[in-house]
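With this grant's support, the team has encoded backbone shapes as discrete tokens. A representative record is reproduced below.
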Amino acid sequence: MVTVSYKRGSMRPIKTKFVKNALATPTVPVDQISHSLQDQWKQIDLVNPMDTNLVVVAGLAEHPTLKMNETFFWYHQFALCIEGEMVVQDLANGKVYRAHDGDLYYWAPGHRMMLGGKFKAFYVKTPIPSRWVNTHNGKQGVPMQELINETTFPASLPSEVKKVRPWPSGAPAMPRMKLVKGATKARPTAASGGTDDWRQVELINALDSDLTAVAGVVKVNSKGEFACYHRSHRVTVVLDGQAVNEDADTGEVYRGEKGDLFYWPPGLRHRLSGKFSAYFVETPITSRWVKGPKGVKRLNLTDLKGEIVRKASPPDEVMKGRLERA
């Protein structure tokens, strides 16, 4: 684990972050997360908040006991179980779920649950709920929603409070969690009009996450290469095979194999090739999949036909040097 400091005003380059043997990375004991009551947690961020401009964090969490801990979510979290048994009780209805290697949980803001069991999981969270710092007392979490003495503006009181009425039939509230058994073994499908070179299945789709993020499995089998330009944050873990990634602006090449991690930020241009399958999480969503008369069709949300777009104004001037005075 490395402590890194950044100069004020510095910018991180738009490039791939590659973590070799990511899923085998040793976790680090957590000394404290504010006033949290979590017991004996170990974790490590593989994709840090600074990597994603404070949007997404991804890493490994390990819980070594059978104790259950109460957890409340104000963020979106995807948790892929990779070892042991990950036990969850949904406090909204008392239902209990037990996940094992290859099973995928999704928890939405507003979800309350009990979490425990001896397990290790790969997580992706957005927005970031905490950041980690090394102190003389050990590794400690800085919660992003519990800043001490933060200035806030109070909300106004309600005009009145009525008796709670049943929600109308036919319009159920969206569930705040989802478990997908055997997620990593899901069979991807090709989009209508596409080829078998790229097959994909979304296990947590746009509606599950209130149009915030998606997670799924992709299978690539191509002799050529795909030119990719990212408008989203995408965290990818290779499940099998070899994924070859070449950054278009630097020429850097990374060859990812089972257990390796890629993070691709918005603005990145890269070429992707190889024969592999991978688990991915993406935010914000850039496409949706719909059924049509000719099969499943991918709707590209970054290129809607006929979308009304206002053009940007041109600059007033272009200078070679730095403008020192207005």
In short: The domain at 22-143 is CATH 2.60.120.10 (Jelly Rolls). Residues 228 and 270 are 5 Å apart (CA to CA).
